[in-house]
Amino acid sequence: MRLLEVTETLAAARTPETVFGVILTPALEALNAAAGAVLLVGAEAGRLKLVAAQGHAAGAQALWHGGPVTERTPTGDALRRQEPLFFEQPGDLVRAYPTLEARTGVVAGATAVLPMVLDGRPLGVLVLDVGHPRAFSSDERHFLRILAAQSALALGRAQLLTNLRQQQQEADERARQLLADARAHEAFVAFTEAVDQETDLLYLARQAVAVLRGRFPEADIGYYTPAGDVWKAQVWSDDMDAALVKNMTAGLPGSTPLIRRTLETGAPVFTATWNPEREEIAHSGAYGVGAAYPLRVGGAIRHLLLIGLKDTQEWSGQDQALVRSVGRGLNLALDRAEQVERQERQTAQLDARNRALEGFAELTRDLSLEVNPYVLVQRAQSVALSLLPEGYALYFELEGDRWALRGQTGDLRREALQAAADAGLPYHEANNLLIPYHSRTPYYQDQYARHTDNLGDLVGHLGASATLPVLVNGQVRGVFAVVLFGSARSWTRPDQAALEAVVYSLGLALERADTAVQLQVRTEEAERRVQALEAFAVLTAELNVEQGALSLIRQAQEVVLRLLPLGHSGYWEPEQGLWRRRTVLGDRQPQALRALVDAGFTVGRTPSLDRPWQTGEPEYHDQYRPGTDAPPEVEQPARSTVVLPVWEGTRIRGVMDFTTYIPHPWQPADRAMLTSVMQSLKLALERAQGVKALAERTAELERSNTDLLTANQELEAFSYGASHDLRTPVRHVKGFTEMAGRALEQGDLGKVRRHHQVIDQAADRMNDLIDAMLVLSQAGRAPVQLTEVPLGQLVTQAQRDVRLEFPDQQVSWQVGALPVIQADPQLLQQVLTNLLSNAVKYGQGRDPLIVEVWGEEQPDEVCVFVRDNGVGFDPRYADRLFGVFQRLHRQEEFRGTGVGLATVRRLITRHGGRVWAEGHPGEGAMFGFSLPQQ
């Protein structure tokens, strides 16, 4: 009972500390021990750490301090051997570990060192000090072994729960970080849209400060312009220290280290471990790090962004990237604003300039929301051609050793020339493209020279040409070409300004498109990561360790399918050389493919399933190749697939596939989501397996307790039988032997024969009792082999046996419906034969004698009843019927040993069932037994 209470208390423990308290108290009480300690294998592999102690005086616990597992100590040896050590005399411990006393000066009386091991993995040891010599009984050693095993289970479960809580906290932190990043991205998008339409320098600066404050709430940010030898703040964050604002607006000298390094390098400067004296900026002592970003206009640094962060000591790569993105966007906007201002100041050739500005504005407006780069190119070509005489526009990008045509507006008027352009121009021969690509400046020809691109007569109808490099983020993306038909034409400065404005605007549009795509991808990835975290949290909360493994796997499939495009999922396990699908969700496979799946795929010849099973790693296919697993002629709707190993503890239980019916490249967010869900499933399967094992061990312990109780009861009855029932025939043999001897001396042979008959009857009685005891003993030892048993067949055989035992007794048998149950057929046959024999024996002389047999199925058990109309019994003594040698009728009335019903109880108890009896004198009796539903 104590062990059962400890087991229940350990099952409710949720933290290691609770487990320590539960371990020590019953262990100390069970042994009347003076003190105890718990040592666990720490995070540092191979070392034990003292984590709990009870009953030790100050300084005494030094005997059981932590140390390497490999060190030769009682705790290390017990853990390495995974066997308990018992030291019953003080000399035992000193002889086994002589250095222990020399090192600590403290040696207990009797000591038990118990290893705690879970699934072969050492967790720690439990040490109990009795304080005086004593011998550990086998029951105590058995109790301590079981206590150590139960403690290991409880510690493993507590550690799992602790790990899950830590993972949940980490997931929450990642979700908060993703939310902060998403908000920063939203602010950056808003900033991009604002600077796309605004030319006011101070407004642009305020927008940049707002974006950066969205990411760095505790930052001080200022926008500076030069005034002589100092840089003065024009815009700054609202909550900046008043003294610092005064210092900034008065102006920071150009020799200030942060400003000087930025001006010298012409690149952003990020400084860590801020020192206000070193940086020579007064009132900036609260900063942890600082940064400066140069803003160029017309190639010269005309403005500065200075940033000071108070809540960090180091710049992350992500934060630096955000500062660079905002600075680059602001720089582009400032440059554009400067260009617009410069164009507005120009007065020469007003009409051409106006057309260029209109074209530039139209292109900027049309391309502001477009992200397809080649759509942007074609729209830029249309704008450029609208400003010039008749001609065509081409756009080339370098691919390997050829110039590939990526955009065209207008007709080239020569099929051969069109074919040459479509095929791609040789890299070294197309000088019209090569020159601007390497010089990064436009290349104008008032009259296109035929030898320029080595195209010969194909270009005889062409006039002027212009080729301009398209710069995107400072790199040449491609070459924009405009060719006019007819005679030579001089490229005027307004013409050049118009084309360069269009191409420059195209570069900005391509930069915005790239940024928009990157932001879209990052936003989608962030959303997918949030979905993955939510899915992980939902799955962790919903998975119930009391569910079956397939039910847990099905739940994981449902969670993942909700996050993927339309498709299906299957779970597979190998069986006799074939892959068998155990669960499937969303299956829309064609009939022919489903037939192959139902038949099973061959293990070792199904790559998609074999590789994850063998390697333990996921197998991703962005584009599933038909014929990989099934014959190529079988229709297969799969477009993208992933197959993942399903771990259960340290073994792979099976593999799970997810298939989409549309192409779906597996993004990092998808993989993170799948990894999280599969890890959660693994933990759930491990927990379910652990709970199942604990339940089985608990049930086994309960059965052992029941068997022990029954054995004790039967032992008591045997003692009674040995002292009473067995001695009675012995007394008869001895007494009548003496009487027969005297009668023989007297020559009275009649008396000798009568005495000899009594002796013979007593010997038979003793043989019957011994045989019955042997039957009872065998009933307790015979293994129980469960199988499906038709009760009707067993009752029929029992009737035949009873007819042979009582051939002269007429019986009216009334047999009702009897189910098929799970039991051992031989043992259950003995039960039914004993009950039917009892019913006929105690009904002898009844006319008619009626024996009824029937069964009843309950939700949790099957009950079987045998009722007769015989002599019955006093219900006050019903509990004695199933005891050994317990009889309610005299031997002269009804022969018997008093062991038959005890055998019935022993056999039914071994099946996990129960027995009972009801009756009244002269009214018959009813005996029943139950067996659990399997």
TrEMBL record:
Residues 721-934 form the Histidine kinase domain. Coiled coil: none annotated. It catalyses: ATP + protein L-histidine = ADP + protein N-phospho-L-histidine. SUPFAM superfamilies: ATPase domain of HSP90 chaperone/DNA topoisomerase II/histidine kinase, GAF domain-like, Homodimeric domain of signal transducing histidine kinase. Keywords: Kinase, Phosphoprotein, Transferase. Its EC number is 2.7.13.3. It is an enzyme of class 2 (transferase). This is histidine kinase.
